[in-house]
């Protein structure tokens, strides 16, 4: 028994002696495995944050407005598990809200950060934006509420700096969403949000709420292009609302094309709406060539210098019908009206034309002698 205790104490002393050595070794042992390969990502616990809780180390006071939070989506027992599946930020019904009312007071959030420059600097660092652009960046976000338990990377404010941790936000949490459909600020505490870790691998900390199921937590995938508006669910009457991104709800309207599903039963499955420009969008179909030379398509209207065979000035010509070749007006030019009809007396003599009867004219008409010089001018 004594030998066992002695052995345990020696082991503890040896382990204690290794601590300074590991500290002196720096971060290489923590991030590199055998052979210099990167080590596995550190295990991170996930904090459960109910919609009304401030959470640890809040940046600011709450800026949540008193609006009706959206109810959690009902799922039957046959829905099956979907562990942290991704949903595109432009998916209809991903967010909810009240018509013409934003779920967060954006101007109050701006004022709270502007009053503390140290917090504003840490907030900008965590959000990945310039410190001087915090106010404009916040005003460009859209206040909505989550309609599903969502995993994010949150940032608390501790000792003058932002501290990142993994969290699951409960359905109904008021957030500010950017122009890519991704949650960026939790309004109950003013904490900046980013995309979650791929696989934290830790355990859930905190008291779970009613209906919480870790297998039904979603992750919002930002779109690859800017989204002009979000189609959200009205929490007061379960209708569709189209809210322009960057607005506070004052421009809410009914969507021109309503989603195919009912707001109460529209499930958040898969990636939702295809992301324009993303991998889920169909490839563009090239137009059919209209001429043998694809680099230079055939014109659909006649050229200005070509006559219109229809005689309608181009309005009655069928572009698809073959056009007969127009005669070239320059092939046989018309006689010049300014040409002198009289023969040139100084030109070389030409062969006299043959007589119609086949007989030559008398010799008297063509004397054999030389032709006398002609004057420069002719008298009439």
Order of helices and strands: HHEEEHHHEEEEEEEEEE
Q: Shape, please?
A: globular
**Overall pLDDT level:** 73
**From the alpha-carbon coordinates, what is the Rg to the nearest angstrom?**
43 Å
Protein architecture, described:
- This protein has 380 residues and is α/β, with parallel strands linked by helices.
- It is built from 5 helices and 13 strands.
- The strands form 2 sheets. An 11-stranded mixed sheet has the order 10-1-6-5-9-8-7-4-3-12-13. A two-stranded parallel ribbon has the order 2-11.
- The longest helix has 24 residues, at 2-25.
- The chain is globular and about 115 Å long.
- The N and C termini lie far apart (157 Å).
- Residues 1-39, 75-82, 270-274 and 276-321 have low confidence and may be disordered.
Short overview:
The chain has 380 residues and is of the alpha/beta class. The protein has helices at 2-25, 28-31, 106-114, 117-127, 134-139, and strands at residues 44-49, 86-88, 95-97, 142-146, 150-158, 161-169, 174-177, 183-186, 191-194, 201-205, 219-221, 229-234, 240-244. The chain has an eleven-stranded mixed sheet. Strands 2-11 form a two-stranded parallel ribbon.
């Amino acid at each position: 028994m004594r030998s066992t205790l002695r052995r345990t104490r020696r082991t503890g002393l040896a382990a204690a002696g290794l601590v300074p050595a590991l500290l002196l070794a720096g971060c290489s042992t923590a991030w590199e495995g055998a052979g210099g390969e990167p080590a596995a990502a550190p295990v991170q616990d996930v904090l459960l944050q109910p919609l009304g809780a401030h959470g640890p180390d809040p940046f600011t006071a709450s800026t949540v407005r008193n609006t009706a939070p959206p109810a959690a989506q009902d799922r039957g027992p046959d829905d099956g598990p979907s562990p942290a599946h991704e949903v595109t930020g432009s998916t209809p019904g991903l967010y909810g809200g009240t018509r013409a009312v934003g779920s967060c007071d954006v101007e109050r959030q701006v004022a709270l950060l502007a009053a503390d420059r140290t917090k504003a600097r840490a907030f900008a660092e965590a959000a990945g934006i310039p410190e001087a652009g915090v106010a404009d960046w916040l005003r460009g976000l859209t206040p909505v509420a989550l309609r599903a338990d969502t995993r994010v990377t949150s940032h608390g404010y501790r000792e003058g700096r932002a501290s990142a941790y993994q969290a699951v936000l409960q359905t109904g949490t008021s957030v500010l969403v950017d122009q890519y459909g991704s949650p960026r600020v939790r309004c109950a505490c003013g904490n900046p949000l980013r995309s979650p870790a791929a696989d934290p691998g830790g355990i859930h900390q905190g008291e779970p709420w009613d209906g919480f199921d870790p297998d039904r937590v979603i992750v919002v995938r930002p779109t690859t292009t800017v989204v002009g508006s979000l189609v959200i669910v009205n929490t007061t009457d379960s209708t569709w609302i189209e809210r322009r991104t960057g607005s506070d709800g004052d421009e809410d309207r009914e969507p021109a094309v309503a989603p195919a599903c009912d707001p109460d039963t529209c499930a958040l499955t898969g990636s939702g709406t295809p992301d324009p420009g993303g991998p889920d969008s169909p490839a563009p179909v090239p137009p059919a060539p209209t001429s043998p030379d694809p680099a230079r398509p055939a014109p659909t209207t006649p050229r200005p210098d070509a006559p219109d065979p229809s005689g309608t000035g181009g309005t009655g010509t069928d572009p698809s019908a073959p056009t007969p070749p127009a005669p070239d007006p320059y092939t046989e030019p018309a006689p010049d009206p300014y040409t002198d009809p009289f023969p040139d007396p100084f030109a070389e003599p030409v062969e006299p034309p043959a007589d119609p009867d086949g007989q030559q004219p008398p010799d008297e008409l063509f004397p054999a002698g030389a032709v006398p010089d002609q004057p420069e001018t002719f008298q009439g």
